[in-house]
What we know:
Blueprint: H1 5-19, E1 23-26, E2 31-36, E3 39-46, E4 51-61, H2 69-82, E5 87-90, E6 96-104, H3 112-139, H4 150-162
Antiparallel strand pairs: 1-2, 2-3, 3-4, 4-6, 5-6
Amino acid sequence: MATTFEQVCQLLEPQFQELGWDYSTNPDPGLIGFVVEGLSFAIHVDEQGELLNCFVPHLVTVSDDHPHAPIALETLLAMGWEMKLVRWQRDPDEGIVSATVEVPLEDNHLSQAQLERAIQGLVDLSLFAQQRLQVILQTGEDPGFEVEDDDADQEADQEEDGND
C-alpha cells in the first residue's frame, strides 16, 4: 500500500493548523472534508492508497438553459488550458461544476510537499474559478484574470501614483 488514510491525516495536521482550517474525517471511506471561504473541499484516499483525490464537489451550477452557459463552458475549457494541476468537470445532467486534483502515488508514500501543493493549488484555483464563473453567469462577460484581488490592484495603483 502506498499511503494510508492515517498518514494523510498526520500530514494535514500541521498545514491546517497553520492556516487555521478545521476539518472532519471519515476513515471508513477514507474521506476528509473541510471548508474554505464557504466552499466545500474533500480529500479521498483511493485505490488502496495508490491515488489521492482532492476535489471540490460543487463549485457552481451551469445549467444548459442558462443564458450565459456557452461562455461559462468556454471559460471552463480555457481554464483547463490556462491552469495546470486542476481538472474541471461539469455534470451534463445537473450542470454541477467540480474541480479535482489527483496525485497518483502507486507504490510511493505521499510527501508533505505533494499534499500541500495539491491542497493549496486546489483551494486557490477553485476560489478564483468560482468567482470568475459567477461573474460570467451574472454578466455574460469573462473577466479573465481580472477578478483577482481588487484590493491588491488598488494598493498597486496607489504605489505607482506615489512613485511618479
